[in-house]
């Protein structure tokens, strides 16, 4: 008999469905709404954005607060789940935002993060079009959309240093959704999306060159009390023992094999 594979929730809808009735959810930097609010009547949904309120079907299904994410207008421990769906790459000072998320989360509260992999073709292309678009529109001083560049290891360090641990994750392929409705001042470049994606598909099929791969990181994290990241500054040249030493002296003695190591 086949054993059913039990998976930890990861996607927004899975996480929302796993929450008990009456749980509180924050859609931070919500834009038009990160998910269909009306599908989760049993949850108390609050959305926050510094620009727009949720539009379309989501407009009346949540309590909306216009606020930036550095100082959220909620008490500590107010939420069971905070969602930052493609938000962290857009902000200055992401650590302040993360610590604020941690403050408003309950103990062992959940944090959903989706953000692009800066090494992916999709993110590089997005950054390139952003620069070209600003030039084309003569908006030379307009800041770029993506202010942060994330790698998987960099993100893990960032979260683990700030009191979160990773419960589940996936490396999500590129969709190039933004390319399909690309439009800068009447310049409808969206028509190029089809041939472009067609070419990428052929490269993948015939040359095993997968440029869609690992384009975005989706992560479900849990707020914890312990610090689960640490720095290591020295490695013993003789036995490989690792240690973190703050002092600046020229030599250090390995606690395991007693070797005198030079810095
Ligand atoms: Zn040693």
Explain what the structure shows.
The chain has 263 residues and is of the alpha/beta class. Among the domains are: 12-117 and 144-174 and 214-224, Rossmann fold; 233-263. Helix content is 24%, strand content 23%. The protein has six helices and eleven strands. It has helices spanning 12-18, 94-104, 121-136, 152-161, 177-180, 193-207; strands spanning 24-28, 44-49, 63-66, 79-85, 105-116, 164-172, 216-223, 234-235, 242-243, 251-253, 260-262. It has a seven-stranded mixed sheet, with helices on both faces. Strand 8 (234-235) and strand 9 (242-243) form a beta hairpin. The longest helix is centred in the middle third of the chain and has 16 residues, at 121-136. The radius of gyration is 22 Å and the shape is globular. The structure holds zinc ion. Zinc ion (ZN) is lined by residues 236, 238-239, 241, 254, 256-257, 259.
């Amino acid at each position: 008999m086949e054993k059913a594979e039990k998976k930890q929730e990861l996607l927004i809808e899975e996480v929302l469905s796993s929450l008990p009735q009456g749980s509180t959810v924050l859609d931070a930097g919500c834009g038009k709404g990160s998910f269909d609010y009306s599908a989760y009547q049993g949850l108390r949904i609050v959305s926050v954005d510094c620009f727009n309120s949720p539009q379309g079907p989501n407009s009346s299904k949540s309590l909306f607060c216009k606020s930036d994410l550095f100082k959220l207008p909620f008490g500590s421990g107010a939420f069971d789940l905070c969602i930052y769906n493609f938000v962290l790459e857009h902000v200055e000072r992401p650590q302040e935002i993360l610590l604020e998320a941690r403050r408003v989360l309950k103990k062992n509260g959940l944090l959903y993060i989706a953000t692009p992999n800066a090494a992916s073709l999709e993110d590089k292309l997005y950054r390139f079009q952003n620069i070209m678009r600003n030039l084309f529109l003569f908006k030379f001083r307009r800041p770029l959309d993506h202010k942060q560049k994330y790698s998987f290891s960099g993100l893990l360090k960032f979260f683990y240093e700030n009191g979160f641990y990773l419960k589940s994750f996936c490396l999500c392929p590129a969709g190039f959704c933004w390319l399909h409705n690309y439009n800068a001042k009447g310049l409808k470049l969206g028509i190029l999306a089809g041939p472009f994606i067609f070419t990428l598909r052929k490269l993948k099929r015939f040359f095993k060159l997968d440029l869609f791969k690992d384009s975005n990181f989706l992560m479900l994290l849990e707020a914890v009390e312990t610090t689960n990241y640490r720095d290591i500054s020295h490695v013993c040249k003789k036995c490989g023992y690792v240690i973190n030493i703050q002092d600046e002296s020229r030599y250090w003695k390995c606690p395991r094999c007693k070797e005198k190591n030079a810095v």
